[in-house]
Amino acid sequence: MSGPIESGGVGSGGGGGLTTIGPFATPPATPTNGDYHVSNDGPIAQVRSAGTWVSVIPGAGPIVVPDASWTTVSGTPNLAIDGGLLNFIPTPHATRSLIYKAAPATPYTITVGYVVAPYNITNTTPAILQVGFYNIAADDGLVLVQCDDSSRARAIKYTTASTAGGASVSKTGGVFFTGMQRLAGISWMRLTNDGTDITLVQMNGPRGPAQPFYTELESGFSPDAIMLAMTGASAQIVHYEVT
Description:
- The protein is mostly beta strands.
- It has two domains: 5-58, no CATH class; 71-242, Jelly Rolls (Sandwich), CATH 2.60.120.560.
- It is built from no helices and 21 strands.
- A hairpin with a 5-residue loop joins strand 3 and strand 4.
């Protein structure tokens, strides 16, 4: 498709409300507040509001689209933006890939939305995506780990996060907790560091009700980054918001 398709509504000379369909990266260049752009290469729509395009996942609400500027620690991940989503694909699938993005100064809250493919193409290696805090120099990590079916989760501390090795300690006594219902089929995670405590929270949407999984002053662990680790299949990062 060479460009957006207009349908119904009022053009830019009117009061807004024009709907277009086309690639996420190329919404209309001269929009009016109230215009609506539907992506034909992904699930993200865009609404023109207060002079800017606001990205929206139908059923979940406004999101902040991710970028591909992550640093690789281990593995050979394929990181690429596709339709406004960040593809995170280990190559080969069975090899653990860990990437990180430097965290801002405390206090901060970071919300991540993501989707995980259940299995790789050979259907032999379970898909595991870990989202959490990371110390760059020490290679320490404190992450939330989800089961393959995304229905259960637990918090785990690694002393060698790049290989999931060292002293791997379950912070929930090895017990999995039932996950929350996910809006629009997306898992949502909120990471908070107030300078004293760090908190891993599972949410049912980017700004919806939350279920805390882990809150503690972690002795000897001072995260300075946010990490993602993927093994077994692929994931898409849908939302990355810093507040």
